[in-house]
UniProtKB/TrEMBL annotation, chain A:
Keywords, ordered alphabetically: Membrane, Transmembrane, Transmembrane helix
Domain Translocon Sec61/SecY plug: 41-76
This protein's record includes keyword Iron: no
A cellular component term, taken from the record's GO annotations: membrane
Transmembrane segments: 33-54, 83-104, 124-142, 148-169, 176-196, 244-264, 298-319, 366-386, 423-445, 451-470
SUPFAM superfamilies: Preprotein translocase SecY subunit
Family: Belongs to the SecY/SEC61-alpha family.
Family annotation (InterPro entries): SecY/SEC61-alpha, SecY_dom_sf, Translocon_Sec61/SecY_plug_dom
Keyword Ribosomal protein: no
GO biological process terms, semicolon-separated: protein transport
Protein name (Swiss-Prot/TrEMBL): LAMI_0H10968g1_1
UniProtKB/TrEMBL annotation, chain B:
UniProt name for this protein: LAMI_0H11738g1_1
Pfam family, one: SecE
Biological process according to GO: intracellular protein transport; protein targeting
Cellular compartments annotated: Endoplasmic reticulum membrane
Listed transmembrane segments: 40-58
Primary location class: endoplasmic reticulum
Length: 492, 70
């Protein structure tokens, strides 16, 4: 008896938790593309409004406390996807981190252990959906004094949607699609919300006179320029400044952030390598600055989510957001803004970027330092740890080199690992740090989570694109999709 | 006492060292040139917008459904 292990907890549930079968035969390139995109689109399609929410949710009641974290996890308030992919991402990241640090003991060489680990990850994801659902229900987010039926109904909806999302992500993860499902979902959700924010045509009532404005910032500009109740200057100013719906300033900032992260994505150090088997074959092996991609940021946002949910539980459920209570005084409370958002007060506000730059400078100047520091420290820590445990550490790569019969030019085979050890941890740490600073800047300019989500979206898009390109080249360009779209072989 | 000092030094040195190494790394990095970059931006941009438009179309389908069920 080797003693009790954490993953054994999953054993009794192994037959209970639904699972996606690993594909029997090799999935072709076209099918993979279709599976990846369609799974993500089905995810978007499940954003149905929740049934059983009290009608009078609005003025004076509990508002959205995590509005600035939502777009990172593709979640929409008061829909089935209230928590988005947060439980899936967080349980996968944290468990893999714990397993990598040997806190949770898993032998990934054993099939049995791998299965248990997978089931445990899923179980914790579903458990989190359940817990978060009840936190939100009992905080009064769906209305005060809900009936028992409504509570059960909300639970069923949120948890069932959670299980569904878990399986949807698993379909892509298990080899039907490219990369990880969470990545695909985050790319598609980010892209969709970007298009909706810029070109969205949905009209929303904005004032008492029955005027309506489009959701999309660009559509709004053209509409306001043509409308009769606005002058040209006020139309243009409004398009750049409105804070109730997406404005052009945020749109430009988001495009800027996307461009910067795309640019950084291509920062690399090229180590020259040569074959040990044949003479005169030289090549380069690129080590990226963003060695771990957007994952470190995602990890920071998972931490932020936990901190804010923890605070929400204490402040809203325990202390009822009452200014005279001790918890309120220690942690800060929430003030309701526009009857839509719950904005945390000092000191919780230290980890909450404000809604606009001016507010950030005047009302919470400390946030700029604390928030940036939090993002940078947690991202860098994660990146440095992750590169060592994720199967692409210096040691793993030197093993790969040996198998493929290549070595760094001018090095003996034995010292390859040492040489890589000098480069890879620095690259991943520095990359994560730079990315964190960029996101923090964007967020402090008032992007309400859009900054982080576009950076994570773009880095995931690059990762996906790379997987797709490699697969396309390996399949020899045999793709009906590519022919239909008229894409040339090396178009990417 | 001396031991404590070195420990504090190590704690304060680590971030400085990290920033130095990181900055040196970023400087050594090969940056994409304009041509390469514009190619990448075009590929990713078009893909991103295309996916976004499909996604938004799906969201538009949601509006009548919401009317029906709420």
């Amino acid at each position: 008896m080797a003693g009790f292990r954490f993953i054994d907890l999953a054993k009794p549930f192994l037959p209970l938790i639904p699972e996606v079968e690993i594909p029997y035969e090799k999935i072709g390139f076209d099918e993979k593309v279709v599976y990846t995109i369609i799974s993500a689109l089905i995810y978007l399609f499940t954003q149905f409004p929740l049934a059983g929410v009290a009608k009078d949710v609005g003025a004076g009641s509990v508002q959205d406390p995590i509005y600035f974290l939502r777009s990172v996890f593709a979640s929409e308030p008061r829909t089935l996807l209230e928590f988005g992919i947060f439980p899936i991402v967080s349980s996968a990241l944290l468990l893999q981190l714990l397993a990598g640090l040997k806190i949770v003991k898993v032998n990934f060489k054993l099939r049995q252990d791998r299965e248990l680990f997978q089931t445990l990850t899923k179980m914790i994801a579903i458990l989190q959906y359940f817990l978060l659902a009840n936190v939100f229900i009992f905080s009064g987010f769906y209305g005060e004094n809900l009936s028992v039926v409504a509570i059960v109904l909300l639970n069923v909806q949120l948890v069932a949607a959670g299980i569904f999302a878990t399986l949807l992500v698993e379909v892509v993860d298990k080899g039907y699609g490219f990369g990880s499902g969470a990545m695909a979902v985050s790319v598609v959700a980010t892209a969709t919300s970007f298009v909706a924010d810029v070109f969205g045509v949905t009209q929303f009532p904005v004032d008492g006179d029955g005027h309506r404005e489009a959701q999309g910032a660009f559509i709004n500009l053209t509409q306001s320029l043509r409308s009769s109740h606005k002058t040209y200057t006020s139309a243009i100013l409004g398009a750049f400044n409105r804070d109730y719906l997406p404005n052009l300033t945020t749109a430009f900032l988001v495009v800027g952030l996307a461009a910067v992260s795309g640019w950084l994505q291509n920062f690399r150090i090229e180590l020259s390598i040569r074959s040990t088997r044949a003479r005169g074959i030289n090549n380069v092996y690129p080590i990226r600055l963003l060695y771990t991609g957007g994952l470190p940021l995602l990890f920071s946002y998972v931490l932020l989510f936990y901190i804010h949910i923890g605070a929400f539980i204490l402040i809203q459920i325990v202390a009822k957001n009452d200014p005279s209570s001790l918890i309120y005084k220690l942690l800060g409370g929430y003030s309701s803004v526009n009857n839509l958002l719950y904005v945390p007060q000092f000191p919780l506000s230290l980890l909450t970027p404000s809604k606009s730059l001016i507010e950030n400078l005047t009302r919470q100047p400390l946030t700029a330092f604390t928030f940036t520091a939090f993002l940078v420290v947690s991202s860098v820590w994660f990146a440095v740890v992750w590169q060592g445990i994720s199967g692409s550490s210096a040691r793993d790569i030197s093993v790969q080199f040996k198998e493929q019969g290549i070595t760094l030019t001018g090095r003996r085979e034995q010292s390859v690992a040492k040489e890589l050890e000098k480069v890879i941890p620095v690259a991943s740490g520095a990359g994560a740090g730079v990315l964190a600073v960029i996101v923090a800047t964007g967020e402090l300019l008032g992007l309400k989570g859009k900054g982080a989500s576009i950076v994570i979206g773009i880095t995931s898009a690059f990762a996906l694109l790379e997987l797709i390109t490699v697969d396309y080249q390996q399949s020899g360009g045999q793709s009906a999709l590519a022919q239909v779209l008229g894409a040339p072989g090396g178009g990417f | 006492m001396a031991k404590g000092n070195t420990q504090i030094e190590r704690i304060t040195e680590a971030p400085v060292e990290f920033v130095k190494e990181g900055a040196a790394f970023v400087q050594k990095c090969k940056k994409p040139n304009t041509k390469e970059f514009s190619k990448i931006v075009r590929a990713v941009g078009i893909g991103f917008l295309a996916v976004g438009i499909i996604g938004y179309a799906i969201k538009l389908v949601h509006i009548p459904i919401r009317y029906l069920i709420v």
